[in-house]
Amino acid sequence: MTLRLHDTRAQQLRDFVPLDPENVTMYVCGPTVQSGPHIGHVRAALSFDLLRRWLEYRFGRVTFVRNVTDIDDKVLANATATEPWWALAYRIEQEFTAAYAGIGILPPTYEPRATASIPQMQELIGTLIERGHAYPAPDGSGDVYFDVRSWNEYGALTHQSVDAMEAAEDADPRGKRNPQDFALWKGAKTDEPADATWSSPWGAGRPGWHIECSAMAKRYLGGEFDIHGGGLDLRFPHHENELAQSTAAGDGFAQYWVHNGLVTVNGQKMSKSLGNFTLAADVLSLRDPLVVRYALAAAHYRSSLDLTESSWDEADAALGRIGTFIARVRRTVPGAPQEQGFGVVPEAFAAAMDDDLGVPQALAVVHETVRRGNSAIDAGDQEQAWAAFVEVDAMVRLLGFGELMSSGGDLAEHRTLDALVQTMIGQRAHARADKDWATADRIRDAIAAAGIVLEDTADGTHWSIDG
Fold this sequence. Notes:
By secondary structure, the chain is an alpha/beta fold. The protein is built from 15 helices and 15 strands. A four-stranded parallel sheet has the order 4-3-9-10, with helices on both faces. It has a four-stranded antiparallel sheet with strand order 5-6-7-8. A three-stranded mixed sheet has the order 12-11-13, with helices on one face. The two termini are 47 Å apart.
C-alpha cells in the first residue's frame, strides 16, 4: 500500500511521493522559547516523531529539521534584567529538549536557531524586494513588509481571500500599504536591547517571525522539500505567510503540508495565553514517560486530544498488557533473547500507518497480536507465542516503545514493586514519627537487603535499585 498523508493545502489525502526516494526531507516548526513547554507542545513534537519513524521505516533516510525561534517579541518581553533574552532563550530551549527526550522523541537531524541564520533571512528579503513583493516602510522605521496584494497566490494554503483576512498585528501599521501586509524585518526600537538587533540594508533591526522559518528551511533542505509540519494553530498566519514569501521568491517550498491537532481543555485549545496549560515537566514528574508517550500517541495526530485522568490510566493499563505478554514469553519460551532487534511489522499494522499515520489502528493491531500471543502461551504453543512476540517487538520499537522491550516488559512488575516499597517507606516514616527507631531501622535494613537504596530528601523519601 502507498503511504498517504492529509495535505492541508490540497484539503485531502495524497499519495506521498518524495522528491528523492532515498532522502525524505521534512521541516517542522519548533518552539518559540519564551517559556517552558506544556503538554500540547510535546504532543505536537511526538506527532512528527512518529511520522519520521514511519518514513524511515518506509524509505530509509529522513533529513528532519526542527527549528528554535530564539528571537521574537515574546522572548524579549519575558526577559529580565537578571536574565537577558538570549539567556532565557537558551534555558527554555533546554527545557524543551528535556521534555522531548523524556518521552523518547528522537533529536532532529538539524535543530537551527533563528539567530544563526540572519544573513540568509536578509538575502531572502532582498530577493523579495527585487521581485516587487516586499518594500521598506517609507516612514524611516527600518521595517520591511511583504506586499500580500502583489502575490496572487496569497491565501493558497488556507483558501482565504485577502479581503476576508484580518490585519496583520506583527508590526506598527503606519508604514504598511495594506493592513494585511506582514513584517519581514523589524526596525530597531529604543526600548529593546541593543544586542537584539542586527545591521541590514534597511537599518538595524531583527527578523519577523515568518521569514525565519522560510530562510532556515531553504538553508538546510533547499528551495524545495517534501513535508512542512506544525500545529493546526500555525496554518494562519504563520504557514500561509511562509508559503507566500518563499514561493514569491521563486522557491517550490513544501510539497506537502501536514498539521497535527491540538490538546484541548474543556474544548478550548491549550495555550499559555489562555492560562489553561499543563507543563510537560509536571506531567513527567508524576507519570512514567512511556505512559505519557502512549497517551499522547493513542489519538490520531490530526484529531483534538482532551486529556483527562482516565487518559493516563488507560495508557498505563494498555502498556501493562503489552509488558505482561513480553515478560511471559521470556519466562516460558526457551532461549527467548532479551534483545530481539528490529524486524518486519505485520501487514495490518503497515496498512494502518500508511493510511495517514493511523496510530490508533496500529495500536489495535499490537493489542490483537498480544492477545493471540497470550492464547498461544496458554495453549503451550511456543512457536506461535514466539511469532507473536517477534511482531510485537517490531511494532512497539517502531512506535518508540523500545524501552518496554529492553526492560523485559517489566513495567507492571516495577509498579507492583513500587507499591510494596512505598508501603514500607510509609511504615518506616510512621515508626520514625513515633520515635520507634528500632522498628524504623529494621524496615530500612529489610529494604536494603532486597538491594533497594532509600534517599531521604526535603520532598520525601525516594527509592532506587542498588547498582
